[in-house]
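Hi W., the tetrahydrodeoxyuridine complex you wanted:
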Amino acid sequence: MNWDRAKEKMLADAAAEARKRAYAPYSGFSVGAALLTEQGKIYTGCNVENAAFTPGCCAERTAFFKAVSEGEHDFAGIAIVGGKTGEEPSAICPPCGVCRQVMQEFCDPQTFRIILPSGSEKWEVYTLAELLPLGFGGQGKI
Ligand code: THU
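Structure:
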């Protein structure tokens, strides 16, 4: 993927748009994610909570599972926007450990970009390797 600021901004905006569809009545914390394939297609996701709590799913995994279930396996990056429902987020929302492990399953840790906006014009960028050092990729399993 040839990244530039416009592409990062486009993905950040798509995540902010997806965040509007978050179903988070229990935590009051709404998250949106936008996952970009190497072919340039975007899959969005939001967190989807549940009265029984554990069945809930993070925005990032919603996006990944939508994409993988459509046959996608080549991913360039993901933008994640989260914060209190009804407020504009002013801090980054780094992905939880479980979502990082799902990224590890499908993405190249050295090149996969994780874009974390802290406002509409400001964001930080990390590789998966930076956020999940020594991630388990199944090497050496039977
Ligand atoms: N959540 C996400 O969707 N992604 C993250 O990266 C962090 C947490 C969701 C899970 C739960 O619905 C709510 O945010 C509060 O933890």
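Helices lie at 5-19, 59-69, 97-106, 128-131.

W.
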